[in-house]
Amino acid sequence: MTLSVDVRHHQGDFLLDASFDSGGRLTALFGPSGSGKTSLVNIIGGLIRPQQGRVTADGRVLVDTAARTFVPMHKRRIGYVFQDARLFPHLTVRQNLAYGRFFTPAAERYADFSDVVDLLGIGHLLDRRPASLSGGEKQRVAIGRALIASPKLILMDEPLASLDEARKAEIMPYLEKLRDESRIPIVYVSHSVAEVARLATDVVVLDHGKVVASGATGDIFSRFELLPEEERGEVGALIELALVGHEESFGLTVLRSAGGEWRLPSIDAPAGTVLRVRVRARDVMLALERPVGISALNTLSVTVVDISANAGPEALVSLDSGGDRLVSRVTRRSVELLGLAPGRKVFAVVKAVTFDKANIGGSHYQHRSI
Amino acid sequence: MQWLDLSPDEWNAVRLSIKVSTWAMVVSLPFGIAVAYTLARKEFWGKTLINGLVHLPLIMPPVVTGYLLLLTFGRRAPVGSFLAETFGIVFSFRWTGAALACGVMAFPLMVRAIRLSIETVDRRLESAAGTLGANRAWVFVTITLPLILPGIIAGMILAFAKAMGEFGATITFVSNIPGETQTLPSAIYTYTQVPGGDAGAIRLTLISIAISMLALLASEILARRISSRFEPE
User: Fold this and answer.
1) Which of A16, A270, A303, B173 has most Cβ atoms within 10 angstroms of its Cβ?
2) What is the rounded distance in angstroms from the CA atom of residue B119 to the CA atom of residue B96?
3) How near does any CA of chain B get to the CA of A6, in Å?
4) Which of B124, B133, B134 faces A86 most closely, judged by CB atoms?
5) ipTM
C-alpha cells in the first residue's frame, strides 16, 4: 500500500500545502495542534474536498482536482477512527460494529467479526449501548467498527488524546497488534512524541500546514530540530532489544541489543520477544572511561558519529552502538571538556529507571533497521 | 352518568374528528420531514420565503387560510377541479377537505418540532456513517431518522392535537355538515348556538379534553422509551 498526497487547501487564514508519500504500515502525521494534521486526514478520508491537488492510494485516484475527480467518502473504503469515537448512540455495540459491514461488497469482506472482537477484547460489551461504555471501551469499539467494514486503509485522528494515561496504556497494545497482525495500513494523527515513537513505522512532520520532514520514525525522532520546542526533551533513539530473561529478585528484565546488554524495569514478556524501546537523548550520559562505582545499570561502549550544536548551551551527540544509533544530549561545555569528536570511542550510561512503560513497545514483526 | 350518553350525531362528530386528525397527521408527515430537513440543512435562494410560507397558517387568521383553501381547492377552483377530474379527489364539503384544512393548519407546528430535532443531531455521527460506506440516503434512514424520532413523535402529536382543535379554517372551507364535515369543535360550536345545548357542549368538551390528554400521554411514553435507549443503563 502506498499513499500519495499532494494538496493545497485554504481554510480562512490557514493554508495547508502538503505533499508526502508513504508506504509504511503505520504512518504518523505528527505536529503541534493547528499544524493541519486533522485537515490532512479529512482530505484523505473524503470529509474535506481540497481546493487543489491529488490523493492516490495504491494507484487508485481518490481526489484529482485537475481531472475533476472526487470519490465520495462512502465509496472510498477508508476506515476512520475519530478522536471522540462517534459511536451511534441508538445502536448497541454489536450493531455499531456490524454497521459498515452491511455496505461492503460481499467479495471484499475480509475482516472477520469475531476475530476483530477478540483482537480488541470487546466480546463482553456486545449487547451494551455506547452511553454505558468507558472512554477506553468506546475507542476500542470505534476501532473495531472501522476494521469490520474491511477498509483498505485506516485513518486515526488522535484516538488516544481524550483518554487518561491508564486508558492509553490499555489501548496501546491493541494498536500495536493491529499494526503488526493486520494487513491494513494505518495513518495515525498525533502530537505526542511518546505515542508516535512507540507506534509509527514512518513519520510525516507537519508544521503550519507544511510538511517539514518525513521518513522512518527512528531517523525523524533523533533529529532535534524536527521536534516542536516543547517536545525537544523527548528527542531520542529507537532501538530494538531482544528479551534475554528476568532478574526476579530485583524486578528487572535483561535485554540484549547489538551494542550490549541492558537492564530495564520489569517487562511482562517471555524471553525472545523483540521490544522497541525509546532511549531519550537527555537520559544518556557520556563518559570517557567505563565508569565504576556508579548506580546506573546500563553502560555501553559507543563511537561518536556526529555532533550538532547551535548557539544554545546544548549539543546533540549521535552515537553508534554496534550498528544501533543512540543520541545523547549534553552541554557544549561537556563536549569541549571531554574533547568529543566524531570517531572517538566513549561510554554511554543510561539509568534503568529512566524507562517508563510509555517508552517500551511490543514488536511482533521484524523492523527494518533504524 | 346518563348525561354522558352520546347521541348518534355526537358519536359521528367524535369519530370524524379522530379520522380527520389522523389523516391530517399521517399524510402531512412525509412532507413535514422533507420540509424540516430542507430548512434545517440546506442553504438556497428563497429559503426565507419558503420558511415564511410554511409558517403562514400559524400567524394568519384561520378564516383566511380556510378561504384561501376554498379559492384553491374548491369545486370550481383551478387545483380543485383538476384534482377532481384527474384523480377523482374532491375536497370541498367533504371530510377530506376537513383533513386538508387541519393538515395545513397543523403543518407549521409539525415542521418546527422536527426541524428543531434535526438541528440538534450531531452531524459528525453522519460523517462517521459516511466513512463506513453509507451513502446519504442510508445515512438518513439509519442514523438521522432514528435520532430525530423523538422530535418526529412530538411533531405528530402536536399536529394531531392542533387538528383536533382546528375550527376556523375547517368551517370556512368545508362548512359544518353533520356526519360529513362536522368535527368536534364544529359540533360544540353548534351546541352553543342553540338554547339548551349546554349539556351536549360539555359532553363533547370533556371528550375533547380526554382525547388530547391521551395523545399527550402516549407521546410522553413513546418519547421516554426512545430516549432511554440513548442513556446509560
Assistant:
1) B173
2) 33
3) 21
4) B124
5) 0.82
Output the domain CATH number for residue B168: 1.10.3720.10
CB distance A85 to A160 below 8 Å: no
Q: What is the pLDDT of residues A145-162, one digit of tens each?
A: 999 999 999 999 999 888
Look at residue A272 in the predicted model and tell me its pLDDT: 82
Q: At what angle do helices B8-41 and B184-192 cross, to 10 degrees?
A: 130
- Antiparallel, parallel or unpaired: β A202-207 and A26-30: parallel
Evaluated on CA atoms A334, A338, A340, A345, the torsion sign reads negative
Grid cell, residue B25, equals 397527521
Strand partners, A330: A315
Strands ordered across the beta sheet of A345-350: A284-287, A345-350, A298-309, A314-321, A324-331
B30–A contact, CB cutoff 8 A: no
Pairwise CB contact (< 8 Å): B131 & A73: yes
**Alpha-helical segments (H) within A183-273:** 193-199, 217-221
Minimum-distance CB partner of B133 among A47, A104, A129: A104
pLDDT in tens, A231-242: 777 778 888 888
Q: Which three cell numbers mark B9?
A: 350525531
**B137 interface with A at CB cutoff 8 Å:** no
Query: Domains of chain A by range and CATH?
Result: 3-221 (3.40.50.300), 237-363 (2.40.50.100)
Chain B residues whose CB is inside 8 A of the A146 CB are 131-132
Euclidean distance between CA atoms A339 and B171, whole angstroms: 104
DSSP A368: P
| Burial class of residue B58, CB neighbours in 10 A (0-12, 13-18, 19+) | middle
Amino acid at B221: I
The whole domain housing B27 covers 2-230
> Among A45, A86, A131, whose Cβ lies nearest the Cβ of B232?
A131
- DSSP for A54-69 reads EEEETTEEEEETTTTE
Find residues 147-176 of chain B whose CB sits inside 8 Å of chain A: 147
What digits encode the pLDDT tens for the residues A272-324? 888 888 888 888 999 999 998 899 899 999 999 888 887 778 888 889 988 88
Query: Which neighbouring-strand residues pair with A19?
Result: A6
pTM of the predicted model, to two decimals?
Answer: 0.79
What are the DSSP calls for A243-264, one per residue?
A: EEEEEGGGTEEEEEETTEEEEE
- Reduced to 3 DSSP states, what percent helix, strand and coil does chain B have, rounded to the nearest 5? 80, 0, 20
Q: Which of A231-235, A332-336, B9-13, B147-151 has the lowest mean pLDDT?
A: A231-235
CA distances from A185 to A28, A57, A71, A178, B63 (A): 11, 11, 19, 9, 67
Taking only the tens place, the pLDDT of each residue in A108-129 is 888 889 988 988 889 999 999 9
For A100, the closest of B133, B146, B229 (CB atoms) is B133
Q: Does B125 touch chain A (CB under 8 A)?
A: yes
Asked if A132 and B165 count as a contact pair (C-beta separation under 8 A), the reply is no
Q: What pLDDT was estimated at residue B233?
A: 45
Residue A198 grid cell? 512507540
Specify the number of domains making up chain B.
Answer: 1
